Amino acid sequence: MALRALTNVKTLGRLRHQQIRGLQTFTLPDLSYDYGALEPAISGEIMQLHHQKHHQTYITNYNKALEQLDDAIAKGDASTAVKLQSAINFNGGGHVNHSIFWKNLAPTREGGGEPPHGSLGWAIDQHFGSMEKLVAKMNAEGAAVQGSGWVWLAVDKELKRLVVETTANQDPLVTKGASLVPLVGIDVWEHAYYLQYKNVRPDYLKNIWKVINWKYASEVYEKECP
Asked: Which cellular compartments is it found in (predicted)?
């Protein structure tokens, strides 16, 4: 009985420590559509593996690194805290990027692929000349990413203009500028397309536009540029 009480006290102590330090764990977000709903542009097999395995792995490793960082800080272990930054940046970036990516996709029956109208459509025409020119630019820059990474359509909320950027590995868009807000992010890691498109990334980039959720992108744009 005394041992159980001591265990409970230790457990409560750890919980209080986590609450005081604001330690938070992250979980895999649900998708608003079925894995097979984006076919034929993206196969259900790819979507399931991408979501359940790859994204979950980033979250698991992110939570682990944050817990280790919390312990290092509590112990005053600056060396370990610094060493953990790489894992936190990589896995945290993977979680951030994929959480955006799922929202950037929608089945065609729910409006996926329908070009934006309103203020975002007008801004695309103003900054890139046309929707077709924007797609060509993003496809070219996405295909040119060496190794793994992302290609983004973003709004610079300070300059009030649209830009296309690429990021390496799992670097989130904010690493290219604090004022950049992602509207559309396309994952060009091989795990996003290889089972279906093999090593032909341009074909994947060509077809993913059929399921891009421009409604979501428009909502973000209108919020940042009212």
From this structure: Mitochondrion matrix
Asked whether residue 117 is marked as a ligand-binding residue, the answer is no
Which pLDDT belongs to residue 22?
Answer: 62
| 139 lies in the same domain as 48 | no
Are both 136 and 218 inside the same structural domain? Answer: yes
Q: Report yes or no on 27 lying in a domain.
A: no
Q: Is 55 annotated as a binding residue?
A: no
- Domain of residue 102: give its range: 44-106
Q: Which residue has the higher pLDDT, 18 or 114?
A: 114
Say if residue 125 is in the same domain as residue 77. Answer: no
- pTM of the full structure: 0.87
CATH of the domain at 140: 3.55.40.20
Q: Is 191 annotated as a binding residue?
A: yes
Q: Which of 189, 138, 139 is nearest to 163 (CA)?
A: 138
92 has a pLDDT exceeding 80: yes
98 is in an annotated binding site: yes
Q: What is the DSSP string of the chain?
A: -HHHHHHHHHHHHHHHHHHHHT-----PPPPSS-GGGGTTTS-HHHHHIIIIIIIHHHHHHHHHHHHHHHHHHHHT-HHHHHHTHHHHHHHHHHHHHHHHHHHTB--GGGTTTPPP-HHHHHHHHHHHSSHHHHHHHHHHHHHH--SSEEEEEEEETTTTEEEEEEEETT--GGGG-TTEEEEEEEE-SGGGTHHHHTT-HHHHHHHHGGGB-HHHHHHHHHHH--
